[in-house]
Amino acid sequence: MELLGTYSTARINTNSYNLTFSFPDNCNAIVSHKDGVYSVAINLNKGQTQPSSNYITDNIICNQYNGCIEIQFVQQNFNPIGGDWGDGNSTKPKVKIFVNG
């Protein structure tokens, strides 16, 4: 199961997009931004072993940098050997959205 639920982008103007995304309520989502790349890291909260079936929604405004916006979701990776949800440092699976303004 992925930690990223639904996501959508909506154009605000020629330079900005609104990003809306959902994730389980027992996870946290940390957004960072540098040079037009928005990274959303979604991880299970400490002590959690399975994602909740209840999702919450978050929203951020993404502005273009040199004519582009890159949005990437980095989710915690499932560990099939250990049977848990990994250590929170995995970069797979990854979803990238490129918006060329």
UniProtKB/TrEMBL annotation:
It comes from the Bacteria. This is Uncharacterized protein. It comes from Flavobacterium azooxidireducens.
